[in-house]
Amino acid sequence: MPSMRRISVVVPVYNGAATVPKLIEQLDKHLRPQNDLELILVNDGSTRDNSDEVCETAAKHNDWIVYLELSKNFGEHNAVMAGLNHCTGDCVVIMDDDLQNPPQEVIRLADELDRGDYDVVFSYYKKKQHRFDRNLGSAFNNLIASYVLKKPRDLYLSSFKAIRRSVVKQIVKYDGPSPYIDGLILRSTTRYGRLEVAHDSREVGRSGYSLTKLVSLWLSMFTNFSILPLRIASVIGLVLATLSGVAGIAVIIEKIINPALPAGWASVFVAILFMSSVQLLAIGLMGEYVGRVLLKLNQIPQFVVRRTIRDKEQT
Known about the structure:
The protein is of the alpha/beta class. The chain has two domains: 6-225 and 300-314, Spore Coat Polysaccharide Biosynthesis Protein SpsA, Chain A (Alpha-Beta Complex), CATH 3.90.550; 228-297. The chain has ten helices and nine strands. Helix 5 packs parallel to helix 8 (211-225) and helix 9 (228-257) runs antiparallel to helix 10. It is elongated and about 90 Å long. The two termini are 35 Å apart.
């Protein structure tokens, strides 16, 4: 009989002790009978529950589960990078630990990856069961990615996706401290697929994505994969310089025509304030780029694996 397909499922875990056991149970039920399954649980510095104990126990009692404990909270994309560096499957599926993506959908993503001869298959949802602010942030992220990353407009950048091994090998070559997984995928291939999947409400807790984390994610996308923000700042500066020149000529002409016209301090104050704000914005953008170069030169780690449990052995 032909050998079973090797599928790796990478799950970043953050305070997911209540949902991880059910996730494991459903993956075992729906995937393992027909596939050579590898589950990689990456504990991203959970502090509010016993996620470490739950993941450790699961790995020690199941030889198909690998547990990576990170030394601190590095962020979801960094945790995913840790999992991608340790996975061995020909098809790698990334999913969250909150059970909003039903585990039985993993096999559909893997099948679509093979059936369409794609390099990556992104999931999308008829209706997302997120909070309004999270949905708004995702919509903004996808809109900006269309311009910054040249993403097709009909492609939704979901965290639940299946990736071919050849693309994973390219992704893990990136060693910067602030990875953005979708950006690394989009720069590696243009063979994308889409698959509509179910999206359930969260069973426990709420999303860990705050406004601060979303802004940090956007900055990673902007400054790691495009110089478009710097070009926009340059264009704004050029336009404002042109407008300032035109306004200056107009003021001189008006003064010649009407010498008694008093100078307006309010308009001067507003103009100075506006120009200063634009300059600070441009300086801030350049600072982001320079800062990220500095972090990489200082070899800030993407992640630090404190310990690994694979095949019931701890290292």
